[in-house]
Write a structure and sequence with these properties.
The protein is α+β, with helices and mostly antiparallel strands. The protein is built from 3 helices and 10 strands, in the order ββαβαβββαββββ. The strands form 3 sheets. It has a 4-stranded mixed beta sheet. Strands 2-1-3 form a 3-stranded antiparallel beta sheet, sandwiched between helices. A hairpin with a 2-residue loop joins strand 5 and strand 6. The chain is elongated and about 65 Å long.
Length: about 150
Amino acid sequence: MELILKQDVQNLGFKDDVVTVKNGYGRNFLIPQGAAILATSSAKKVLAENLKQKAHKEAKVVADAKATAEALKALEIKITAKAGGEKLFGSITNADIAHALEANGQTIDRKFITSGIVKRTGKYNATIRLHREVIIELAYEIVAEKA
């Protein structure tokens, strides 16, 4: 079944993508949730016209995302956490990285940050998706909190 996505769907595609899914997933989940519509020939023509009009607006968004990426690469992120030796009491997640970025003046939603769960001090990398075309690796360090 071919569908046109009306919003981003994780592990499937982005808004305005034409995707092929199994019939049950499309009819029972995506369409009732309002996440997709059927990809009929007329819907594809409307989509093509809309994409053509959005193309020049998209260039500005990509330029802004690249500027943000350069600003993020210049940052040196250090996250302090309570630890016993090298092992943390708790863990560092995407939300903690988002808070550290916000403290440095960059507001990034945690759902666009992929780092996994970290339970030890040290240096790590997180992947940040600023735009579908702009994905960067951000180095950060976890240090033990001084008592």
